[in-house]
Amino acid sequence: MVLARVILGLLDLSPMTGYEVKRHCDTTIKYFWQADKAQIYRTLSQLTADGLAAVETAPGVGGPARQVHHITERGREVLNDWLTSKLERQPERDAFLARLFFSGGLPESQVEELLAARRADAESLLAELEEMRRSLPDPPDRRARLRLATLDYGIAQVRTELDWLADV
Amino acid sequence: MVLARVILGLLDLSPMTGYEVKRHCDTTIKYFWQADKAQIYRTLSQLTADGLAAVETAPGVGGPARQVHHITERGREVLNDWLTSKLERQPERDAFLARLFFSGGLPESQVEELLAARRADAESLLAELEEMRRSLPDPPDRRARLRLATLDYGIAQVRTELDWLADV
DNA sequence: GCTAACTAGTAGACTTGTCCACTACTCCAG
DNA sequence: CTGGAGTAGTGGACAAGTCTACTAGTTAGC
Fold this sequence. Notes:
The structure is a homodimer.
Chain A: H1 2-13, H2 18-26, H3 37-49, E1 53-58, E2 66-71, H4 73-84, H5 95-101, H6 108-134, H7 142-167
Antiparallel strand pairs in A: 1-2
Helix pairs in contact in A: 1-3, 1-4, 2-3, 6-7
The first copy, chain A, binds a DNA duplex through helix 2 and helix 3.
Protein name (chains A, B): PadR family transcriptional regulator
Pfam family, one (chains A, B): Vir_act_alpha_C
C-alpha cells in the first residue's frame, strides 16, 4: 500500500518515531497524505517485520522512551522501486462533487450555501498552504524544490477551485 | 458512508439495477466517484434493509431477471439530509504528489520521466472529460447544469495540472 | 499537590473497499 | 453449435483504514 511507501520516504529523510511520522502527516505532508495514528504504528511494525526498517530504542528526552525507526538498505531499494514504477491514476473520489452533482432537487439557495461553504473551506486551505510556502527555505536545494513543487500544485488546484466557484 | 449516498442520488434520478449503478460509476460519474461491483451490490442491499430503497424484480429483456431498486420516501429524506449537511474536506491522499515529494534522491532524468508519465495521463483524462462534455445536451436544464459544473470542475483541475506540469 | 498538555505507544472492534471466482441467461458471429 | 461478449448477481477471503479507549512518562501552571 501507499502508506508504507510514504513512511519509508519519511524515514529516508531522517529516522523517526511513529509519533513523528504522525506529526508529519498532520503538518508537512498533510496536503497530500493523511493517516490514522493506529495505522501508522501498524505499518511501521510491518515495515520492521519485512526488514525495510529497523528500530532502535532511545531514551526519551522529557518524555517516555522513543522507538526510533531507520530505513534499511532493503527499504531504500523498495522505496526506489516504488518511485520509479509505473504509476496509474488512482480512482477519483470527491464527496463535494458528488453532492453538487445530486443537488438538482434542492432549492437554489441551498446549492448556494453548499458552494459558499466550499469557498470558505478553500480559502482557509489556501491561506494554510501559502503560509506553509512562506515558511519554506528561500535558497532551495533539490529536495526543497520538489517539496515546493508539490506545494505549488496544491496551491494551484485550490486557486483553480476558487476561480471555478466564482464562475458557477 | 458516501457510496450509499451516491447510490441514493443515482436512484433518485431513476430506478436502476446494481449493474446499472456500476455502469454509472464507470462512465457518467467516473470522474468523481468510482466503486467496486461487489461493494455496490452490498451497499444496495444495505439500503434496502434500511428501508431507504425498495427492490422490484423485473423480467430481463434479453438477459437475466433484473432487480430494480427504487428510492423510498425515507431514502429521499436521508439523501436530502446529506446534501444539506455540513461538509468537511476529506483527507487528501495523492499518490502522485507523494512520489514526487520523495523523489529528491532520484536522478533528474527519472523525475522527468515521472512528470512525463503524469502529463500523458492528464492529457488522456482531459480528452476524455472534454469528450464527455461535448456529449452533454446543449440547452441544459437544472440537473444538466450541475452536471456540467462538476464536469467543468474536473476539466479546470486537469488543465491546471497540465499548466503546473509545464512549469515544473 | 492536582491537572492539563505534550510525548509515545498499544489493543481491539469495526467499517469500507478490493479481488477473485463463480452462476446464469441471451444474443451474435463464425 | 460453440464460444465470446454483454447483462445481472452472489460469496468469501482479505487488505486497509477508522474509532475509541487505554497506559505511561514529563513539564508547566494554578
